[in-house]
Amino acid sequence: MANNPWLPSLWGEKDGDPFDVLRKRINTAFEDLGQGLTTTLSNEFSVRSNVSETDSEFCISAELPGVDEKDIDVSISGDRITIKGEKKSEQEQNKEDDGREFHRIERSYGSFQRSMTLPFNIDSEKATAEFKNGILTINVPKPTEQVTQTKKIEVKATK
Predict the structure, then answer these.
(1) Model's pTM, two decimal places?
(2) Residue 130 is part of which domain span?
């Protein structure tokens, strides 16, 4: 196909497979679109988390990379647990003006808040929170009545 004289000029390329050229242009378009979205969303910081359960407790682990422990607040109200805080930008972290001029900022920063509702009122005296390597782990023991009420039901297959 590269020998066809009208295809290379149509795609703006002198040599090469026009499908490779098309693929490269589509990839570039998607990369440009992604950069536009990143720029638009650069001041938002979202909390990604996992919630797991054992017979005796719920465990919430939240990814908070680049956040300082002192900038995290965990609060409990009834059956709701809320994680909030702020991830500071490099400009805020480095108060001294070192003369750096940023050409691209893709890393997210800003205030965040994430609330989750558990199926019971949380005893704030028994809940614990630990922050290590950018992961916040919150352990919430289930109330005694909830632990004793839990009953496994056998699942039987039907034919």
Answers:
(1) 0.61
(2) 48-149
